[in-house]
């Protein structure tokens, strides 16, 4: 596939040439993905450019306060793609976790715009803006859009939400001075960090509290290797009536363990469908570990999906990871 690296000054001009636009992101979208699709949609609305956000699943309830129901549609018919001149894919390292997965990109006449910050991004777009130095896709979008075009306050709020959720409210190493400069710019647009923290982070429901409690109570330590892990069988998902997105932020919690080099959370989101999330404090590169199973992400935050029997797969994964990272040298 032909790929072009494009500079920022023609980003909006290029999008404007390819309306109506379709805006999509990866399945099980996190705060950055949600902030990116709706921040861009709100921006395009404000500048009278036609676009549609298409989702394949309902959004985690934590984000309800920030999103308008009129701003998205659910995917009903995959042939719908053909009516869009451009498809903007946000925060996705490849198309396998998006609604484009069943569609060979060569079969669509739509132009694909790939905007992302995953180091594992495979540059699937016709145009690619992929920069692992961005703390978040939302930070990247602000960089691409800020300039002479006005940034509406609603977009600023959504982009700031994405930056904050992807950086642990600016506490993670990915949030450097460049990120703080963008945050300051958004702050000057009238949006507040504490308001976003209250509406997204301090918004867990009782079922989520129980899910987190279950995973934390049952966590296990492999102290020789500096690994802390927990697993959530599918039965817990049905008993507590929780969804995939209800554990967002949970694996980061395990990184709080003093002697953690690597935190692993394995969730059986559907019978025999296992989502594995990996986090590290920096010494271990979890992106390269996740790539063993076809996943990816960032050096300190990555994941992959695998199928099989939970405990068997978990043991296999832990054995391979232990072999790769070795024992702690303390
Ligand atoms: Mn992201």
Task: Tell me about this structure.
The protein has 11 helices and 13 strands. By secondary structure, the protein is α/β, with parallel strands linked by helices. The protein has 2 domains: 4-201, inorganic pyrophosphatase (n-terminal core) (Alpha-Beta Complex), CATH 3.90.1640; 206-325, Diaminopimelate Epimerase, Chain A, domain 1 (Roll). It has a 7-stranded parallel β-sheet with strand order 1-7-6-5-2-3-4, with helices on one face. The longest helix has 16 residues, at 31-46. The site of manganese (II) ion (MN) has 6 residues, from loops.
Give me the secondary-structure topology.
Blueprint: E1 4-5, H1 11-16, E2 21-25, H2 31-46, E3 51-55, E4 73-74, E5 86-90, E6 111-116, E7 127-130, H3 137-145, H4 153-166, H5 177-188, H6 193-201, H7 206-217, E8 220-222, E9 227-232, H8 234-240, H9 250-254, E10 262-270, E11 273-280, H10 286-291, E12 296-297, E13 301-307, H11 310-325
Parallel strand pairs: 1-7, 2-3, 2-5, 3-4, 5-6, 6-7, 9-10
Antiparallel strand pairs: 8-9, 10-11, 11-13, 12-13
Helix pairs in contact: 2-4, 3-4, 4-5, 4-6
Name some characteristics of this structure:
alpha/beta; 11 helices; binds manganese (II) ion; seven-stranded parallel sheet; Diaminopimelate Epimerase, Chain A, domain 1; single chain; inorganic pyrophosphatase (n-terminal core)
Low-pLDDT runs = none
Largest sheet: 7 strands, parallel
Might you state the CATH topology name of the largest domain? inorganic pyrophosphatase (n-terminal core)
Give the spatial strand order of the biggest sheet.
1-7-6-5-2-3-4
Query: What is the strand content?
Result: 15-25%
């Amino acid at each position: 596939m032909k790929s072009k690296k494009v500079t920022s000054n023609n980003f909006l001009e290029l999008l404007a040439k390819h309306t109506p636009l379709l805006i999509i992101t990866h399945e099980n979208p996190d705060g950055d993905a949600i902030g990116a699709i709706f921040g861009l949609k709100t921006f395009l609305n404000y500048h009278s450019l036609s676009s549609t956000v298409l989702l394949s699943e309902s959004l985690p309830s934590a984000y309800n306060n920030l999103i308008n129901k009129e701003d998205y549609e659910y995917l009903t018919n995959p042939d719908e793609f053909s009516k869009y001149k451009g498809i903007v894919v946000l925060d996705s390292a490849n198309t396998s976790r998006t609604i484009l997965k069943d569609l060979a990109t060569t079969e669509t006449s739509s132009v694909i715009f790939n905007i992302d910050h995953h180091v594992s991004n495979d540059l699937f777009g016709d145009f690619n803006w992929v920069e692992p130095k961005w703390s978040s896709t939302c930070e990247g979008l602000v960089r691409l859009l800020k300039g002479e075009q006005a940034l509406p306050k609603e977009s600023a709020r959504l982009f700031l939400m994405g930056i904050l959720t992807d950086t642990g409210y600016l506490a993670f190493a990915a949030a450097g001075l460049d990120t703080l400069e963008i945050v300051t710019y958004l702050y000057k647009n009238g949006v507040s960090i504490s308001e976003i923290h209250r509406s997204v982070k301090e918004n867990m429901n009782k079922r989520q509290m129980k899910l987190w409690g279950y995973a934390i109570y049952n966590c296990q330590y492999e102290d020789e290797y500096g690994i802390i892990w927990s697993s959530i069988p599918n039965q817990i998902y049905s008993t507590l009536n929780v969804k995939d997105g209800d554990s967002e932020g949970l694996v980061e919690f395990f990184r709080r363990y003093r002697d953690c080099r690597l935190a692993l959370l394995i969730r059986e989101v559907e019978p025999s469908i296992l989502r594995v999330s990996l986090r590290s404090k920096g010494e271990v590169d979890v992106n390269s570990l996740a790539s063993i199973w076809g996943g990816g992400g960032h050096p300190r935050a990555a994941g992959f999906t695998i199928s099989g029997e939970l405990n068997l797969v978990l043991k296999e994964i832990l054995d391979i990871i232990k072999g790769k990272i070795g024992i702690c040298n303390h």
